[in-house]
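Hey L., structure's done. Input below.
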Amino acid sequence: MSSLLNFHEGGFSGLPQVRGDVGRWHLILSTSASESLLLRFQPSFTLPRQNKKKSRANKIFVLDTNVLLHDPQCLQKFEENTLAIPVEVLEELDRKKSAPGELGYAARKVHRDLRRLFDEATLSKPAELKGKSSSTLGRDLPSGGRLIVVINDYLVNGTADSEGMKLLKATLGDLEKMDNRILASVVFLNEQYADSRVILVTKDANMALKGIALGQEVQDYMNDKVRAAESVGCKTLLLEEADYERFLEEHGVDLAPEKTSHLFLNEYIYVGHGEFREPARYRGDGQLEALIVGDGVGVKIPKGIRISPLNEEQRMLMDALLDEDIKLVTCTGKAGTGKTLVSIAMALYQALGEDNLYERVFITRPLVHIGKDTGALPGTLEEKMAPYIAPFYDNLEVLFNNRKLASSEEPKKEQERIDRITSNRKRKKAMAKLAKQPIAGDQDEDEANSPRKPYQFLFDFGMVEVEAMTFIRGRSLANTIFIIDEAQNLTPHEAKTVVSRMAEGSKVILLGDPAQVDSMFLDASSNGLVHTAQRLKGTEITAHLELSTGVRSELADLAADLL
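Output:
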C-alpha cells in the first residue's frame, strides 16, 4: 500500500500532532475500501478508553440542519468538543441557500464559515487505498474543539455488519430520506467511538423522537435559549418602616447595596412594608425611585383622549416609555394586557406634545415569514401592510374617538403655511399645532364625501408611518419611536437588525407574548423578543417589563389563561 501520509509516533506528518486528548482532532475514514486502513491505524483514530464508561468529557455533537439554520454561529458555541456535520446536512443547506429572508441568509453564512475554516486549515490529502480515498475533512476550531465533516462508511459500502444499522433499516426503512441518513451517521459515529458520548443535536421534534426510538442520545440546541420563566412577575422588596416612609415622602430611598444585590439596573419592583406596597424602579447603587406617573394620573394625547394606567403594571410601562434616557423597552405579556395601546399612546404623546421629543412614530409587526415579499400584493405600502397592522388602527380609533370630524378652509391655509416653512424644527412645531385641529387635506371628490378617520392627520403629515420590516436593513432612524408589535415572531438576528438601526434620539419598543409564537423556527425561549430582553437586561439605557393582568375583557382574560 502506498500512502500519502507518513505514520509515526504521535500521529501523521502533515497533520496536527496529538497532545493529550486524541479525540480533539480525530479524523473519520469512511470509504468502502478503508477497512484495512482503520484496522492498521486504529490507535490513532480511537478516543481513549476510560474504565469502559462513556466519558462525559469526550463528546461528539452531530448537528442537524435545522440547528445550523437556526443559529449560523453555533459552530463556535460547543467549547472543547467535537462537532460532526454529516455531508447530508451540507446537501440540505445547499438547497436552502437561495431561499428568501433569514432562511437563505443562514444557509449562505454557514457555507461561507465552513469554507473559511477549511481554507485556513492545513489539510493533507487523505490516504488512498485500492483506488479509493476517504473524503472526510477535519480541523481544529478556535474554541478548542474539533470540526469534522462525515461521510458514513455504512451507507457507502452497504455491507457493514452493524446492529445499529440493522435496527435503523428495520425501523425506518427508506434511507433515501435525508433525516434517516443523518440518523445513520449518528449510528455510525456511536459504533466507531464507543468510548465517547455521541449526541444528536436537533430542533426537529420528529427527528428527536426517531433518534430516541433508535436508542440514540438526543438534545435540543439550547445556547440561544433564555430562561424567561425566571422573570415572571415583579419582585417585592420589604423595607423597614422608616425606609418605606422615606420612600413615600421623598419619592425614593437609598439602601445598602447588599439589600439590592439581587436586582438589575432599571428593574421594576414593588417596595412594601406590612400590607402596603408601591411600584418602584431600581436605579443602581442601592437607589430605589418612585415612578414618574402617579396613581390615577392621566396623560392627555393632543387632540385625543386622556389615558390613565388601569393597574400598577401599566404605570411601570408608562414610566419606562416616558423616560428619555431609556432607549429600548421590551414588554411581554399575554393578550389583552394593554401593552400595545399604552405604547402607542405614550409614543404619540411625546411626538405630538409641546416638547416634540420625536419627529415621527414608526409602527409595524413582523410577518410570520419576515422575508416574504409584499411587493406582489396590490396597492401602496400602507395598503399592503394594513392587514398586518390592523391592531394599530384599532388602537388609534380608541385614542382619537373624541375628535369631531370637520372640513374647513382654515386647516388648509394652515397646511399651506407649513409647507412654506424650511426649518425642520419650526415645521415640527407647526405640525404639532395643526395636530390640535382636524384637517381636510388633499382629497378627491369621493374622499371628501366619505367619513374621515379622526387619526388621519397623523399619516397626512408623516407623524405616523407604516414601516415594512423587509425594508429596514441599511436604514438609520433618528429622532424616531419604533414600535414593533408581535415581536415574539422575530428571530434574534432580526431583532438585532432592528435595534441596530436606531440612531441618536430614537427609541425602540418591542412588544409581544412569548407564549404565542407563530414561527415554526422559534419557541417561547428562543425568539427575538425574549432574547433581546434577556441579553440587554441590566444595561443603563434599556428596560424590560412583563404585564400579567388582562384589561380587555373577562372573556379575553379567561381565554389567555386557560386556552
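Residues 238 and 274 are 8 Å apart (CA to CA). The domain at 7-219 is CATH 3.40.50.1010 (Rossmann fold).

-- N.
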